[in-house]
Amino acid sequence: MIVPQGRPFLMRTAGLSVCALLVFGGGGPIGPLPVSAQEAASAVQDVTLQNVTMTFGGTVLTAPQVIVSGTRLTKDDLLALLRSGPEPLPARLAKFDAASIVIPELRSEIRIGTKTQTATYRDVTARDVRGGRIAQAAAAGATAAEAGGGEKRSASYGRMEMRDVDLTAMARLYGEAGDAKSPMMRLYGAFSVSDTLMEADGTVVKVARIEGTDLSGRQIPATWTGALDAMARADQAQGNPADRARIFGVMADVLDGFSVGSVQATGLTISQTKDGEPVSIGMGRMVLSSGGLSMEDLGFTAGDAAGKLARLSVAGFSFAPTVVAMRKLSTQAGEPTEADLRQMTPALGTLAFKDLSLHLPPDEVPASPKPPGAASPALPSAVTAPTHIGLRDGALAFGPLRDGVPTTGRANLSGLTLPASAVAGIPGLGSLGAYGYRDLDLNVVADTAWNEAAKELSFSEVSVSGKDMGSVTINGTLGGIGPAVFDPDPSVSTFAMLGATAKALDLRIENTGLFERFIASQSKSLSLKPEELTQEYVTATTFGVPAILGNSAGAKAIGAALGQFVTKPGTFLLSAKAKNAGGIGMLEFSAAPTPGAVLDRLDVSAKAN
């Protein structure tokens, strides 16, 4: 398990340091005080604190000046609340009442090993602080940096705003251990951050605005401060099984220990230079909620390659299986096995995307070498044309997992467009360019499901259709598919597949132009008239196919139907079902002496048009 070095820094600057800001008051639009707060302020005092220092978990907070207005607490009372002592921090914060707080500069500092992470917040203000809760708060901006590491890491933020902040709950979350089973505590009702800029390990991330609602968390055994520390040190635990197991447990607690009503980010860009080429990723808008994740107006450039995607959405995704697997790994010694790692696969749900466009740069075909003794020079290298690939709509749906593998799935790709030259080397598709197709417009569907009780894998639909071509649709059922097929050990799963049987197959072919183009191309190549070549194919299919298949009744039905299809290319239907309820084994197929020997074990029907 490797955690990138930049990630813990970014997590901490965006999480724990913001929490530290809130201990003194931070983040939310400043408006007029409620009438009740104004009346209370007339009977209380204003207090100014100088050179304040406070320890919050592993973070040291310092502020040259803190101005507390409209409070009944004296200067000594306030200093006592901020000073570490026998009384827990949450209890001290619960006594904090003020009409407003102003902190011109707030600095947080934390050490992790040899590294020191600092964050500085400007013009921190808060309004209506009651019992450790802040109604509205804000900071004009912040900067963060890390020293002592091999890479330069820094971050800056524009205006931060928050509403309904519960400092007491936040202090308990970050500083008090729990059993990871307690109810969620609401930390704040809403937040927003403008103009975020983060730089780590040569990667620059910019976000124009981030806003969200209803962030909640629960206490965990390591505390959230300890959890962030553990994940920041994760790379140091690779050689220690006990430390690695502990980190698995911490990560499970973190994944299962927070919830967000919604988070929205707009104007996201990520840029870096990889292998000497600039790489840039952009996104117009991202929305995360309990209902799923959606991203709009995505784009990327990598050298001469580029791509765009109008929308990408995920529904039904869940880390629940991952959390269960991590908790199991946290209690066992030794290296995680392949089976263990596969159990960490999250529930995938449904992935949908719309209007995908890819531009791939041309490839250079190497020059042909000059033959020995040849008089002519070697052929120069050639450059292929750029490739454009598009997709109007697509959806990938995944069902329940078995050993980390979905047991059901459906893929639906509509309007897959690409040049015919892109499939030149694929069997069955490579000749499409010769049939006059310059650009392909395809639809692809694959729908499969595993029935554990029946030990069957059904293909309710596997189809490919093309504009001005036609379609091929297959429905089928395989038997003998038991749980061993999903075993993470390839030798076990491969051996299990050898026991699979073919039970039923339905084939449907519809022609909407491909066959005519095939006849035209072949007749030109063979110097025959199209009608002459068609008649030869009719003879070959009507009489040749049955002879190859053993001249059984089923073979003759297939030949006759194919002959009708060639004569008038429209629709061809073939249905085959094993006479034995258990199906025909895969090894029996390979061992059959002739195709007729297999066909004799099937009930076959065929028709055309």
Got a strand count? 28
Radius of gyration: 34 Å
The largest sheet is: 6 strands, antiparallel, barrel
What's the overall geometry? elongated
Structure explained in plain terms:
With 609 residues, the chain is an alpha+beta fold. Helix content is 25%, strand content 44%. It contains 16 helices and 28 strands. The strands form 3 sheets. It has a 6-stranded antiparallel barrel with strand order 4-5-8-9-7-6. Strands 16-17 form a two-stranded antiparallel ribbon. A two-stranded antiparallel sheet has the order 19-20. A hairpin with a 2-residue loop joins strand 9 and strand 10. The longest helix is centred in the last third of the chain and has 19 residues, at 530-548. The chain is elongated. Residues 1-42 have low confidence and may be disordered.
In short:
The protein is 25% helix and 44% strand. The longest helix has 19 residues, at 530-548.
